[in-house]
Hints:
- The structure holds 2 protein chains of 2 kinds.
- Chain A is mainly alpha-helical.
- Helices cover about 50% and strands about 10% of the residues of chain A.
- Chain A has 6 helices and 3 strands.
- The mean pLDDT of chain A is about 85.
- Chain B is an alpha+beta fold.
- In chain B, the strands form 2 sheets. A two-stranded antiparallel sheet of chain B has the order 1-2. Chain B has a two-stranded antiparallel ribbon with strand order 3-4.
- In chain B, a hairpin with a 2-residue loop joins strand 3 and strand 4.
- The longest helix of chain B has 15 residues.
- Chain B is globular, with a radius of gyration of 17 Å.
- About 10% of the residues of chain B have low confidence.
- The chains are: A mainly alpha, B alpha+beta.
- Strand 3 of chain A pairs antiparallel with strand 3 of chain B.
Amino acid sequence: MIRPVWEMSREEIAAGLGNGFLGGGPFEMAAVIGLCAHAEWLDEPAFRVALMMRETAAGHAVMIVDWDKVAALLAVPAEERTVTASEPAWSVLRFAHALATDSLGLGVLDARGAGLVLASLREALSVTLTMGRDPLTG
Amino acid sequence: MTTVQHMSAGQLSIALTRAAEEGDSGPGEVAALRLLISHGKWIERFAFRACCRSAGEIDGHAAADVSWDAVFALLTAEEPERSVIGSPTSWAILRLAHLLATDGLDLSRLDHSNAGVVVEAMATAMGWTFATPLVLVVDGAPR
Lengths: 138, 143
């Protein structure tokens, strides 16, 4: 039997989302990983409303994000918000939604374009990544 | 003085970079300009050049800046016009550059830890696989 989302711990939510994004594309997977890494939203009741439990044909419980509900959460003007998330949390959620829905239109990029975009984001945010494999160089 | 429209792509790139680095541009705008310059397509296109303005001279060298409002107008132009002057990839690059320059994603509100989360998510979305454990370095210190 699937437990209600609001009764779950943060760890259960993360595990459920981990199973759920396996059916999504790389952008949605990345968005969910980002939200789990950030973690603040996983405890937030307003975000949990956007989480839906599903049972696969094999009987496995998976959790998926209703991005339309996330969009509705983001659409509330800052001065009218009743959710007490931090400012970085709102930025992370906005970015995750943009990634998951590919509203940035980045899904059309080739490897070079993807590398340029990532480099620019790293520069804008002053973050350095050391990665195992770069798609430009293998 | 050479006008923006008469500059070579290299001259315009240098003029834009000079104004951004010497002026009061934030890191988002500097990153946006580097993205466009590295991509190389928009710097050569009249449609983008029409969004660039002379910013006078800095140390005797030409400087230029971008009207991001004009870029937004370009991004929201009618579809038939857009299809003539750019591939879907080019438009995606320009759209992201505009968002970075204008902080359209509110990324300036991120602290360093969450900036790492965002960059890591983007890297995952872009297909980077991590054959070795991912090491995030924020402000010179592994996170």
